[in-house]
């Protein structure tokens, strides 16, 4: 705890200096977020009726869905993925036909009690700044395509193929913080599939991308008779400055904070929300 407090004190001191040398770096936003974290109680502070994360980074656009043409970064990501879609799809199909059995990053039942272990699987290609051995071995062309996007990848996020079995419905849930956006590239999309973010439903179209903020409540479903497959990437929010990204990366790697992404812990528990709302009503 002492070491943690010392690290935070040093970061806050460094921020004061950086604000002098980078007046246009929007460092005050990071400073506000960190100070909010320091005073954050054990109870969530967000209004769950808004159906969003318990911790929000200030001063950046916060909405459920994003159009790629709103930001040059998202346009670049979209073009890179959609123009190279055939190579990505062919590698996925080659893996699927090979009969190999890659272990999923998580057990779906540990995240949602309504699901079975393999109802929702994640085949990890990139995490913590590095491509995985699975990615390098089974999806080399895809890794080469994704390597051109590394400057935009969220440092504690993931790139993975998400596979949803027929008839599966992911319950509503929210993730940690709005400093990242999720990009989905649609690979195998049967009928009767969809995703709702912040109350707005969209559908995947094979070979095309979707961008959304998973700090809003979201859910997804596959009511078809076939598996649904998307390639998912975690990206920095496009409005963050270079110095903000550097500071965030330091915090993500050195402090135990709500910035940290962990797939088991980031799912907000519905019963905890209800308990909090009941307490607020008193």
Describe this entry's structure for a reader.
The protein is an alpha+beta fold and 282 residues long. It folds into 2 domains: 2-52 and 241-281, no CATH class; 65-236, Jelly Rolls, CATH 2.60.120. The chain is 36% helix and 21% strand. Helix 1 packs antiparallel against helix 2 (27-39).
CATH class of the largest domain: Mainly Beta
Physical arrangement of strands within the biggest beta sheet: 1-9-6-11-4-2-3
CATH topology group of the largest domain: Jelly Rolls
Structural class: alpha+beta
Question: What is the CA-based Rg, rounded?
Answer: 19 Å
Strand content: 15-25%
pLDDT < 50 runs, ≥5 residues: 41-50, 260-282
Q: Terminal Cα separation, in Å?
A: 33 Å
Name the overall outline. globular
The helix/strand order is HHEHHHEEHHEEEEEEEEHH
The CATH architecture of the largest domain is: Sandwich
Number of domains: 2
| Assembly form of the protein | single chain
Largest sheet composition: 7 strands, antiparallel
Explain the layout of strands and helices.
Elements: H1 2-21, H2 27-39, E1 65-66, H3 72-83, H4 85-98, H5 108-111, E2 120-127, E3 130-131, H6 133-138, H7 140-147, E4 158-164, E5 168-173, E6 180-188, E7 193-197, E8 200-202, E9 209-212, E10 218-222, E11 228-236, H8 242-254, H9 270-281
Antiparallel strand pairs: 1-9, 2-3, 2-4, 4-11, 5-10, 6-9, 6-11, 7-8, 7-10
Helix pairs in contact: 1-2
């Amino acid at each position: 705890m002492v070491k943690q407090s010392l690290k935070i004190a040093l970061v806050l001191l460094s921020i004061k200096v950086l604000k002098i040398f980078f007046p246009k770096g929007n460092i005050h936003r990071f400073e506000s977020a960190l100070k909010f974290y320091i005073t954050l109680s054990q109870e969530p502070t967000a209004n769950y009726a808004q159906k969003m994360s318990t911790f929000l980074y200030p001063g950046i656009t916060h909405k459920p869905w994003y159009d790629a043409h709103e930001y040059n970064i998202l346009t670049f990501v979209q073009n890179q993925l959609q123009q190279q879609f055939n190579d990505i799809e062919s590698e996925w199909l080659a893996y699927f036909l090979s009969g190999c059995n890659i272990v999923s990053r998580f057990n779906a039942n540990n995240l949602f009690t309504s699901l079975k272990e393999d109802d929702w699987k994640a085949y990890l290609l990139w995490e913590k700044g590095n491509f995985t051995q699975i990615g390098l071995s089974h999806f080399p062309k895809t890794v080469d395509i994704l390597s051109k996007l590394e400057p935009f990848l969220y440092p504690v996020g993931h790139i993975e193929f998400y596979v949803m079995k027929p008839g599966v419905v992911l319950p509503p849930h929210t993730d940690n913080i709005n400093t990242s956006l999720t990009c989905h590239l649609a690979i195998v999309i049967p009928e009767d599939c969809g995703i709702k973010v912040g109350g707005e439903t969209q559908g995947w179209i094979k070979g095309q991308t979707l961008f959304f903020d998973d700090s809003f409540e979201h859910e997804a479903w596959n009511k078809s008779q076939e598996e649904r497959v998307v390639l998912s990437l975690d990206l920095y929010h496009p409005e963050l400055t270079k110095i903000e990204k550097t500071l965030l990366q330091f915090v993500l790697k050195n402090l135990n904070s709500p910035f940290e992404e962990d797939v088991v812990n980031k799912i907000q528990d519905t019963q905890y929300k209800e308990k909090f709302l009941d307490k607020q009503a008193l």
